[in-house]
Amino acid sequence: MANNVLLNSIEHQNIKVITERSADYGDNVWYALTFPSEFKSLQTYYPIFFNKDANTGAFFPVALFGFEQQENLFLQDGKWDAAYVPLTVARQPFLIGNQTFLEEGQEKTQRVLHIDLDNPRVNTEHGEALFLEYGGNTPYLDSVANMLEVIHHGVNDSKDFIDALLAHDLLESFTLEVGLNDGSSHQMIGFYTINEDKLSELSADALSKLHAKGYLQAIYMQIASHGNIRHLLNRKNAKQNAT
């Protein structure tokens, strides 16, 4: 269970965060949440699809790292074997929280930095320091704060992006059959992608509005990312051959 607390330089002066990548630190995930403004960085390495929350019915985009639970084919010897690590993975063990305060008699809310003290990356001996010896944030902590701001705005924008896709009926479910060299196979269900036929039928006005919001580029980036399924499959076969 997470132990999320408000980060401060007094109680957490000596905390360090391990930045290596491995299953021991919780990186054995087969996909991670992403958002439209990140698609350009992701589409070079990962397939991007959409998933649906079983409880709320809300759609959200994800970057795919494997074909089954707890399989991340990008983990190799304490490193992430791609030049770009998705931000919702890279931000661990930090998260954004909200703090209310009074200003001139009015209650306001501001975003603050939290840390999960029970995360296996958190310790006092190894890794990146969070605070300078005589006060102030380290460059590492500043980079984390910037990262969380990008995630915050990206996730909020993602909701509008999904609404736009649904308004034009652009999401369709698909099932991916993955056949491996050893004869085994995996069936991926529950994912969604862009319906390219519906996309091609959109009016010039609809396309113009999607373009103005930056969503048209994100749509094409998502479609282009499909080519990474083959690369992911190659990683899977290579891993099986090595064992």
Structure description:
This protein is α+β, with helices and mostly antiparallel strands and 243 residues long. The chain is built from seven helices and 13 strands. The strands form five sheets. Strands 1-9-8 form a three-stranded antiparallel sheet. A three-stranded antiparallel sheet has the order 10-2-11, with no helix packed on it. A hairpin with a 6-residue loop joins β4 (48-52) and β5.
Structural class determined from secondary elements: alpha+beta
Low-confidence stretches: none
Q: What is the first-to-last residue Cα distance? A: 33 Å
Biggest pleated-sheet summary: 3 strands, antiparallel
Q: How are strands sequenced across the largest beta sheet?
A: 1-9-8
Strand content: 25-35%
Average residue pLDDT: 91
Shape: globular
Order of H and E elements:
EEEHEEEEHEEEEHEEHHHH
Helix proportion range? 25-40%
As a whole number of angstroms, the C-alpha radius of gyration is 20 Å
The count of β-strands is 13
Number of helices: 7
